[in-house]
Amino acid sequence: MDNRKRNLLEQETQRRYLLLLFQTGLKEIWTDQYRLKVLVLYLLTVLLFSIIRPWDLAYSGPDIFDAVSRIAFSLCFPFLVFGGLAVLILWAGTPSKAKSIQNNLQRIGLVNHAGETPLLVAVRTEESDDMHSRMTVLEFLACGVPKSVWEDKRADIETALNIHIADIRESDGKRRIQLYTVPATDELPKLLPWKDAYLRDAFPACKLVLGESLLGPVTLDLNLIPHVLLGGGTGSGKSVLLKLMLMQCLKQPNIQVTIADFKGGVDFGSPWRKHPNCKLILDRETLLCYLDDVTEKLEQRKDILGKVERRDIYDYNRHEPIPMDRIVFAVDEVAEILDKTGLTKEEKEQVARIENRLSTIARQGRAFGIHLFLSTQRPDANILSGQIKNNIGYRICGRADHVLSSIILDNTDASDKILHDAQGRFLTGDGTVFQAYWFDDTKKMF
Length: 446
Ligand SMILES: Nc1ncnc2c1ncn2[C@@H]1O[C@H](COP(=O)(O)OP(=O)(O)OP(=O)(O)O)[C@@H](O)[C@H]1O
Ligand SMILES: [Mg+2]
Prior knowledge:
Elements: H1 3-31, H2 33-52, H3 54-57, H4 64-93, H5 98-107, E1 119-127, E2 134-141, H6 147-152, H7 154-161, E3 163-171, E4 176-183, E5 207-213, E6 216-221, E7 228-231, H8 238-251, E8 255-260, H9 270-274, E9 278-281, H10 284-307, H11 313-319, E10 326-331, H12 335-338, H13 345-364, E11 370-376, H14 386-390, E12 394-397, H15 402-409, H16 413-417, E13 425-428, E14 433-436
Parallel strand pairs: 7-11, 7-12, 8-9, 8-10, 10-11
Antiparallel strand pairs: 1-2, 2-4, 3-4, 5-6, 5-14, 12-13, 13-14
The structure holds adenosine-5'-triphosphate (ATP) and magnesium ion.
């Protein structure tokens, strides 16, 4: 592209930008007290000048030069007034530090093919309803720089603008990009103790609250996300997070929890065992019987929902007089129940049947309120079959190396975004890093 064409494009973009700032300025003046006061002050000054007419006062006699300049000034006055007003409106619509932010983006090469940087059109603050997060949203006219490029250059942008980017979103179709940011000095806390108050919005919507990201609370709605696969290196915090989720299920009256723990149930002490809605399974035979029951129940629910023409359990429970319970089946280390190494032929057959039942639940459980929460250090193919894994859409990964992150999330992000000594820090499949709530199941839970 030659220089002349580049200049023409630049001028056109600048014209569009000025028009946009002007429109924003008009809106800002009506909504922002400070800007409105500046405008009123300006108009009062103009009014005062037009009443006093200082150029007339300075007129001292029939000097021809004086008379010409006086006429010229009084002719120019309206233009000066409107010019000043336009500048004031542009000032009101221009986000602070817009120029320096754009220069910084230019420095890291965030430009379109014509060499133009995205243009900052708005800066606003968003407070989340919990007190841990306060976002500044930077809104840009993308100027043809797609979201994928912003994501690729995320680390560069963070350094150039000295911020953490919690999220990048498109708006106005694909024309605008919004960066959800917090200052670079803000970080997720290393410890977030659980409080029962966090449950306030969960019932009866079947929502679980997992922890907090820089964007605010991270929740999981069982109506939308039926199954969860939790992976991560040893000591990353999987057991604590799984127990946090199960504890919340048990606090809701309509969820039945069953936990398979082949280590003799040592990980789940008396609060779990004594809870009327919680059942522990300690051996393979019982597990198989239980899973047979659950799959049978699944078929029964299919018939019931079909007969009353309800789409799923959510629809059924909202309209029918007697609601169905949700059923959650959880395993803390799935390799314990699915690893076939060293087993006899008969045991291998049992494991194959367990796998088969889990696969049915993973495929069909959502509509019928039957959920799987599976946790494991390493869900590779010889432990968790593709059929089960592919049907668990919601994956959460704790600290992990490249290979483990790829096995769990199908990308290496957990290894890049989670420090190698982090505890209770997780990454979801949609790219959200969060600190899970710390929860101690040796204390009173229910
Ligand atoms: N949410 C959290 N916040 C802070 N620290 C945590 C959190 N979760 C876990 N930890 C710390 O990490 C330690 C290990 O947690 P946990 O037993 O859940 O890990 P794990 O991933 O289940 O390990 P393994 O795979 O060996 O069973 C805990 O004892 C605790 O000190
Ligand atoms: Mg564990």
